[in-house]
Amino acid sequence: MILSTLLGLSLLQTQGIGEAEGYKPSKVKPLELARKADAALKKLSDAKAVVDFAVEMPNGKGQTQGFVKIRDADHVAVQFGRVRNILDVSVTPAIRNGDRAGILLDDGWVTAAPSKLAPMLLPSKGIVATWPWMGQQYAMCGLMNGSTPFAYYMSAALAAKEDYKVQVFERAVKVEGTTYKTIRVVTTRTKSGEKKLGPYKVAMTFDMGSALPVTMVSEAKSPRGKVKSLWNARWTGPEKFEDKVFKLP
To answer: Most buried one in 35, 90, 122, 169, CB count within 10 A?
Structure first.
């Protein structure tokens, strides 16, 4: 399984967040695609992704780079973007090693059974509203504990028809003789939803062949003001990892 770095970079160049250049309406069902994405992440082995995360807020902007390293479903190491404040946009490491998992917080490492590691659990409510600034963490929860973040998000967005609208687009891009097909799922607020909750747009792009997530672009109103964020993953493999990569402290 190899996804070219060029795929991720080409997606960064798309303009806008909706029906960008080359994208056409798709008949793919958003919830079906989300379920495939969750399943694809869980099935990965000997895989790696370099992940870029950037965020822009009213008082400034920041960016960082992390990774995802996967030996199998029980051995995963991730670094996801975390916004402590606009002057400290950094990566937070989390590791799953068999029946234990851990995450490095401000006060040190916290370890627990994967299903009980609170910072890597999905919220009981509000996943759609908070995705623009928490999506880079939510997306990794499935690797840590087997949850289904993309299906959870999509189910919630589709259920809230009065507040959200979900559209699906697809396109094919030819790079150096190879054709890459991607699907973009765009969630926006309806007029009534925007009136109640403020503006909101989230565009998730997946590789059509593997169903892996490659880009998430967001714009929304948060408690801190308007937030824009970008998450971009460049998946490669196969790659072997040393045991120390998955060692918990």
So the answer is: 169
